[in-house]
C-alpha cells in the first residue's frame, strides 16, 4: 500500500512524484503519514491482495481520504468477477473513490484494463496520459468479448455463490489460513523453506497446481492456493489431505 505525493519542482511546469509506503492495512500508520503530508496525495491500494488474500478496508480508507483531501485509487484486479463488479461497486463507493482500475486478464480471461472515474479525470487522461495517447485502439472483437464478459458476470451470480461455497469448505478443513474468509486466494504460511518445497512438490505429483512464494517476494514463505467455482468438493478434499499429510 502506497501514498503517491505530487510535488512541483521549482521553475518547472511538470510534477515529480514522491512515493511513501505505509504498513499493510494499517490505518493508524496511514493517518500519521497523511498528517505530515502538505501536498495533494494519492493513496493506492488493492481491494483484494494477491499475495495475502486479504482485503483493504475500503470504507475506512474513503473516510481517511476525505478527511485529509487525498485521492483514493483502488486496483480491483483480483476482486473483479469474484465479487461481481468488484468491491468498490459492492460497497457502493463509486462516487467516493477517485479512480478504480479494473484489469481484464483475470476473471474476464482477456487483456487490457479500464480506469473508472469522474468525467474530469477521464478527460484529463484522454488528453495527457501518454500510454493512452500513443497506443492503438483495441479491436472490435475484443470490445465484444468484454461486453459479453460483463453480461456473463451479471447473469451468472450462482458461480460467485459456488466459489464462496468452495472457499468455506476449504477454510473449514482445520488448516490455518491468514486470508480473508471470502477470498479465493488462500495463504498457508510456513517457517521452513524445505517444508514448503516438499508440500508444493507433493501437490504437483498429485496433479494439484499451487504456488510456492519465497522471500524476498514476500516476508514469509507461503503456499498460495487459488480456489475456483469449478473445483469439485473431491478436488478440494484431496488438496486438504495432501497438505495435512506433508505438513
Description:
A hairpin with an 8-residue loop joins strand 8 and strand 9 (222-226). Helix 8 (193-205) packs antiparallel against helix 9 (233-246). The longest helix is centred in the middle third of the chain and has 16 residues, at 140-155. The strands form two sheets. The chain has a six-stranded mixed β-sheet with strand order 2-1-3-4-5-6. A three-stranded antiparallel β-sheet has the order 7-9-8, covered by helices on one side. The chain has nine helices and nine strands. Residues 5-12 have low confidence and may be disordered. By secondary structure, it is an alpha+beta fold.
Name some characteristics of this structure:
single chain; 247 residues; six-stranded mixed sheet; 9 helices; 9 strands
Order of strands, widest sheet? 2-1-3-4-5-6
Separation of the first and last Cα atoms: 31 Å
Helical content class: 25-40%
* Strand/helix succession: EEHEHEHEEHHHHEHEEH
Poorly predicted residue ranges: 5-12
Topology at a glance:
Elements: E1 2-8, E2 15-21, H1 27-36, E3 41-46, H2 58-67, E4 71-75, H3 87-90, E5 99-103, E6 113-117, H4 119-128, H5 130-133, H6 140-155, H7 157-171, E7 185-189, H8 193-205, E8 211-213, E9 222-226, H9 233-246
Parallel strand pairs: 3-4, 4-5
Antiparallel strand pairs: 1-2, 1-3, 5-6, 7-9, 8-9
Helix pairs in contact: 8-9
Task: Summarize, please.
The protein has nine helices and nine strands.
